Amino acid sequence: MQDFLPISVLTSQALRPNSIPDATSIPGILPTSAAPPATATNSSMQISDDSSDEQLILALRDGSEHAFTSLFHRYKQSIFGFFSRRVADSARAEELTQETFIALFRAAPRYEPRALFRTYLYAIAFRILRSDRRKFIFRAAFSGSPKSGATAAISSHTEDSLWIRRALAKLDPTNREIVMLREYQQLTYSEIATLLQIPLNTVRSRLFRGRTALRELLSPPPTPPPSQTCSAGRSPTAFAHANAEQTAKQQSSAKKGDAR
Hints:
Elements: H1 53-61, H2 65-84, H3 90-107, H4 117-143, H5 149-156, H6 162-169, H7 173-183, H8 189-196, H9 200-218, H10 236-259
Helix pairs in contact: 1-2, 2-3, 3-4, 4-8, 5-6, 7-9, 8-9
């Protein structure tokens, strides 16, 4: 079996909400010529569009192609969003999204229901992201020193305001990852702890620190206090300047009087 499958299904058009490709269009996974209709299943488990994620992955483990199609439709946008906020190039985010679902399909026969499917899927996405970052660092060593992939992604992503992107880029990397998983992917504390392999209390404390730091970075700068004015409506500087001029005039008049 070849290690890399062609990457051609998750185009920008395919990732738009109202343009859902069939799972059979992923080369090397579900051969179009042999694929049964979407309602068919090779598994004894009866599944439908209302089936839970856990039911679908178990059906996929048993060979259900319809289960794979359903999971792909449910999570393609979320996984694409996960990558698009972490890599600089949108096209690369699409490729990594496809690689995630290819990896899911290949790993399905070995799946064991130890955690929620969503946690399992994001764990695959994280492994692919880390592998891509290692490749990025390796390439950067021979082609200069561009800014890190995570920072580049935050700087180039167009969904958020420039203000928020810059603030996120300034957070501690772990705090930033936790904030993004919670706010963008809407993962639970437990899921984040499992993905990042850190204690649950660490997730809570780092999320609090990350949110606090982000709030401070996004807070507008304090407004300078209004300048004090004298009774004539002039600032202290202007008043002192005028007073100095008046004193100089009085001294000049006094000298003229002495000269007489």
